[in-house]
Amino acid sequence: MSNVTIIKAKRATQYIFLVCGLALSSWAPMVPLAKDRLQLNEAELGLLLLLLGGGALVTMPLSGFFISRVGSRKVILISVLLTALLLPCLLVIADVYLMGVAVFAFGCGIGTIDVAMNSHGVQVQNAYKKPIMSSLHGLFSVGGLLGSIGLGFLIKAGLDPLFAAVTISAVLVALLTFQFRNLLSYTSEKEITGKFSHINESEAATSRFQWLNASVLLLGVMCFIAFLSEGAVLDWSAILLRDHKNVSAEFSGTGYAAFSVAMAVMRLTGDSLVSKLNSKTVVVGGSLIAAAGVVILIFSPWIAGSLAGFILLGIGAANIVPVFFSEGGRIDGLSPAVTIPVISTMGYAGQLAGPALLGFIAHHFSLNIAFEIIALLFVIVAVLYTFRK
Q1: Nearby residues of 157 by Cβ (< 8 Å), 6 or more positions away
Q2: What kind and span of H or E run contains 214?
Q3: Where would you tag: which of 41, 90, 140, 184 has the fewest CB atoms within 10 A of its CB?
Q4: How far is residue 345's CA from residue 58's CA, in Å, rounded to a whole number?
Q5: pLDDT tens-place string over residues 119-174
Q6: What is the pLDDT of residues 333-346, one digit of tens each?
Q7: What burial letters (b/e) apply to 23-49, b meaning 16+ CB within 10 Å?
Q8: Neighbours of 265 (CB within 10 A)
Q9: What residue ranges define each of the domains in the chain, with the CATH number in brackets?
């Protein structure tokens, strides 16, 4: 496999991560529109939102099955096209049950893209022989920032909401079409798997039933904790600032904005950081920095101090998950088509469970204590990774 092919595959993978972030975050501005159109109360809307995560959780474990048979390139193609097709539908469906089906299917598409792009990313990284996963996840974050404001900007500019959504879908399909041929073929992926996971084709077939591997499960548990913490910050940071730091509602989102920008910047520069240091330093040091950031944002009497805490949290947490995916793709005797779906599913389950867990703790104790649990979880990640074999 030539260096030119690998470099093109790296660039193509970057675009797919951008596509996934853009597609997922474009749903966020649609949520209030869906609530009004379907006349949902908060509980009904919460159930609808849960269906998106449920769809992702259903397809994530199944994605590896298809990747191992047809390759991640074809899985990416089908799942991106499905997601792009469904995105405008989320703005026009007026029946609540049909909307539930559409949101669930949209979650299936997003979950499948997530697994396929990460599986493809670790294959490219193994062939490239340099860390690239942090920058890939950084582009997902960039896509998230663009999507969260892009649809709203188009509507604000005077476009009909449906036409704005169709425009976003067209961008997704255009990016996919532009880079599809540069993604690794199924044959290339099998070649890389055999070379870097030290398994041959027959062993790869058997290994699909050997995901109950201690290294895979440990990475999955740590990924669960990291995603749980990030998901909790997403849903509860504004409440913490408004109700405990006396920040006005209009500016209560500044904490998560600071966290997101810090994370995106660190991920875009994280590959060189991993190269200069090592995985253990990045994960252990990052976890401790994230824990310190949480402590600062809780106990600082000044708003600026709390925002600095969110920035430290973003800096510390940014490159932890990319390292986990990288290591999941290099486990001897196991293909990334086996390991990445397991790690992705466990991580996404944590992201869904995080807000609910913090809500339970905050209800019975306080939100400050709930955030202290987040700091403790990051310390647990540091300890687990320090003593892993």
Answers
A1: none
A2: helix 214-244
A3: 41
A4: 9
A5: 999 999 999 989 999 999 999 988 887 887 787 788 778 888 889 899 999 999 99
A6: 788 888 899 999 99
A7: bbbbbebbeebbeeebebeeeeeeebb
A8: 16
A9: 3-196 (1.20.1250.20), 214-387 (1.20.1250.20)
